[in-house]
Amino acid sequence: MTSPIAPSSPDRTPPLVELQRVTCGYGDRVILRDVDLAVPRGSVLALMGVSGGGKTTVLRLIGRLLDPMAGQVRLDGVDLATLDRDGLYAARRRMGMLFQFGALFTDLSVYDNVAFPLREHSGLAEDMIRDLVLMKLDAVGLRGARDLMPSEVSGGMARRVALARAIALDPELMLYDEPFAGLDPISMGVAARLIRELNRSLGITSIVVSHDVDETFSIADQVVFLANGGVVARGTPAEMRESSDPLVRQFVDGEPDGPVRFHYPAVALAEDYKVGVR
Q1: In whole angstroms, what is the distance from residue 133 CA to residue 115 CA?
Q2: What is the pLDDT of residues 30-68, one digit of tens each?
Q3: Which of 53, 81, 101, 217 could bridge 49 with an S-S bond, Cβ 3.0-4.6 Å?
Q4: Domains detected in the chain
Q5: DSSP characters for 121-166?
Q6: Are 235 and 225 in contact (CB under 8 A)?
Q7: Residue 37, CB half-sphere, CA atoms under 13 Å: how many?
Q8: If DSSP codes are grouped into helix, strand and coil, which group holds residue 238?
Q9: pTM of the entire structure?
């Protein structure tokens, strides 16, 4: 378990991201219903909860990869649904995204992976791009690995390369989708400290989707639990550890049974065995 990392002091100004009475889903299946959520500037907010609870759906809403059925998703006070294509692309350039397993371009070197968004969007000269790439790689401890290919680095290193790429354009908002998945304890601790340190040093706002209680609680300013179509609990990591909510307790303690059942609903076992008996 990583020792707690000192939280930031979020701004008291209006939140950078807001979901206001948002209902959304896929087809006829509603995932979130009437959800209100505010992400303070400069904070690290963790979205946690059971699988299928809507955590990654929130990230898709913020990137407008998914439109709400009702309600508003606002970035810096602007309803994303009102933006045209140019406005949406401009909004997305204010965001950085760390995908669950890095999603590096396998045929590009570490250097070229980080340079990619700069070449696509910045219009900078190549010598300036080089300086920025080396700076971002140095921030994640991998400047010396710049000439390696993704196949030549470990899973933890690949995640850090992806993080350097995500911050290449100096985003105001960082979105992390399961940043600790599949990492060994050392790499997990490194990733957690990088998220916290980059949030502080770059003055950004971060939303972390994760199932890892210890690492996430060590870096988060606020934790929001999603389940059953909405927010079931929110508060500081310390408040979540003391929560009496049965679902939060089951999640934090890692209990196999509780509000979330181990067994999928089924008829009685004896009845199932009778089927087919002649």
Answers
A1: 6
A2: 889 999 999 999 999 999 887 778 888 999 999 999 899
A3: 53
A4: 41-53+84-274 (3.40.50.300)
A5: HT---HHHHHHHHHHHHHHTT-GGGTT--GGGS-HHHHHHHHHHHH
A6: no
A7: 33
A8: helix
A9: 0.82
